[in-house]
Design goal:
With 206 residues, this protein is mainly α. Among the domains are: 56 residues, no CATH class; 73 residues, no CATH class. A two-stranded antiparallel ribbon has the order 1-2. α4 packs antiparallel against α5, α5 crosses α6 and α7 packs antiparallel against α8.
Length: 206
């Protein structure tokens, strides 16, 4: 019996050693392979990273971007695009529009691909005496004197179809740059010629 005990003990020890080695190898293999749940999350994450929001119509993006620029900014930005200075163009648009860097990059790309002419925002049109087209100017019981001067040159218009309100609207037209409309309104509310009206309007200055 004693002769059998030693071989049995050796077999048991060897079996235990094999089992421990097998378990260690099993743990190592399990650690190297991601679990199904982890693999699914990793795939989903990569899918999310590669997915991007479809951009809008580039021409619409370009039009909207151009509308946010002043005439000087519009000119400088297209000069930078023409010179191939994309980063400088993006920086200029970023500072001018207040949008984010990615939106600024997309806007500059759209502006480069679809060049936009500068369109100034239509200013609120001053009151232009449109009602005078249908009705004759009112004649007041007094003559109003309008005087314009610049340097040594002075012009005067005296008319009983002028008053402070009408003359103020004519001045507003002149200062807004619509000198022709201002001259036309002045001739309508006085007896001077168009040439004289243009000369008078040319003297209106701050």
């Amino acid at each position: 019996m004693e002769s059998l005990v030693i071989p049995v003990l050796i077999l048991l020890i060897a079996g235990a050693a094999v089992l421990m080695v097998a378990r260690a190898i099993g743990r190592r293999t399990a650690g190297a392979q991601p679990s199904p749940g982890t693999a699914g999350r990793g795939t989903a994450s990569r899918g999310t990273a590669s997915r991007s929001t479809p951009p809008g119509d580039p021409e619409e993006v370009a039009r909207a971007a151009a509308a946010k620029l002043t005439e000087d900014q519009h000119r400088r930005l297209y000069a930078l695009i023409a010179q191939g200075q994309a980063m400088a163009a993006i920086k200029l648009y970023y500072e001018a529009s207040g949008e984010g860097l990615r939106a600024s990059r997309d806007a500059v790309g759209a502006l480069a691909a679809h060049p936009q002419p500068f369109r100034s925002a239509a200013p609120e049109a001053p009151e232009t005496l449109e009602h005078d087209d249908d009705d004759a100017p009112e004649r007041f019981p007094y003559r109003y004197r309008a005087i314009a001067s610049k340097g040594d040159v002075t012009r005067e218009v005296s008319s009983n179809m002028l008053n402070d309100e009408i003359y103020g609207r004519i001045r507003t037209l002149a200062k807004s740059g619509d000198t022709e409309a201002a001259a036309t309104a002045l001739t309508r509310h006085s007896d001077i010629s168009m040439k004289q009206a243009r000369e008078f309007i040319a003297l209106l200055d701050d």
